[in-house]
Design brief:
Blueprint: H1 2-6, H2 9-28, H3 39-71, H4 76-103, H5 110-138, H6 144-174, H7 179-202, H8 204-237, H9 239-260
Length: 261
């Protein structure tokens, strides 16, 4: 145990975020079995993806951002301003990105643009998660209790990343993309956690300051994608199955976040 605690913070963050990335890749690998799923089941899974993103935007992003600001001594007005501005900025970013992709025909079809936006949103979401892991390991100062908390944070995020990898890859597969390509895109969204984790461990004070902004920005982006792409697409293919999927996805992500802290 002392060996692991004695490793440089950046190395510990690298190992921890390597685990969280592998869990994302594992979730994305579900697409290789999607040929066995009916159209209704794929629609349910797309609804589940939307529910997961909506729950994650609150429990994994906005709530931790609020807690960090409160711990730093920020007043209610300042906390509300940071969360609101960051959230709105994330939503505007997705809307603007969609308009740019459409105007310059970066992707030829509407479904392709939707897939790109979903990838952007999940990638943005993984950046502050990686920062959080890196900051946790960078702030240890030889404290065994803090090390255990950092490890549990990485384990919790890793477990949550399994359904999040599914969030990206399954809707892409549902749109007709080949399983291999959908998997590559889904797992790639988790790679940013490794870079963000190492950066967070190296630049603890700087990253800690911008983390609430990054968390709320990512939440706005995820809600925008869920409302503009995942839910409308699912409801169009099957209202009941999509609605049940959204409820199930939200419940699963809420359960994991509350259970794992």
């Amino acid at each position: 145990m002392e060996f692991w605690i004695g490793l440089p913070a950046a190395v510990q963050a690298l190992l921890a975020t390597g685990f969280t990335y592998l869990m994302t890749a594992l979730g994305a690998s579900v697409v290789f079995f999607s040929n066995k799923f009916s159209k209704c089941m794929l629609n349910v899974m797309q609804g589940v993806a939307a529910g997961i993103m909506i729950a994650a935007s609150f429990f994994s992003l906005l709530l931790p951002a609020q807690e960090r600001l409160s711990a730093a001594g920020s007043g209610a007005a300042a906390i509300a301003a940071v969360l609101s501005i960051g959230f709105l900025a994330g939503g505007v970013f997705i809307v603007a990105s969609s308009a740019v992709l459409s105007r310059f025909q970066v992707f030829s079809g509407e479904k392709e643009r939707g897939g790109a936006l979903m990838f952007f949103a999940m990638t943005l979401h993984n950046i502050p998660e990686g920062f959080a892991v890196g900051v946790a390991f960078g702030s240890l100062a030889g404290d065994y209790g803090a090390w255990i908390a950092a490890v549990m944070l990485a384990v919790g995020i890793g477990i949550q990343n399994f359904p999040e990898g599914l969030c990206v890859s399954v809707p892409l597969r549902n749109q007709g993309m080949r399983p291999g390509k959908a998997f590559l895109i889904g797992q790639f969204s988790g790679l940013v956690e490794i870079a963000a984790g190492v950066l967070g461990a190296v630049a603890v004070e700087f990253v800690s300051g911008i983390l609430p902004w990054a968390l709320s920005f990512s939440a706005g982006a995820m809600i925008a994608v869920s409302c503009s792409e995942l839910i409308p697409s699912g409801v169009a293919d099957g209202k009941v199955s999509s609605t049940l999927g959204v409820a199930a996805g939200f419940a699963v992500m809420m359960f994991l976040d509350v259970l794992l802290g």
